[in-house]
Amino acid sequence: MTVYLSAFAGAGWQFFTDDNEVLSGGKIYTYAAGSSTPQATFTSSSGLTQNGNPIILDSAGRLPEDMWLSQGVTYRFVLTDSNDVQLGEYDDIVGINDGSSESVPWANITGTPTTLGAIS
Question: Cα–Cα distance between 42 and 61 in angstroms, integer?
Answer without folding.
Answer: 18
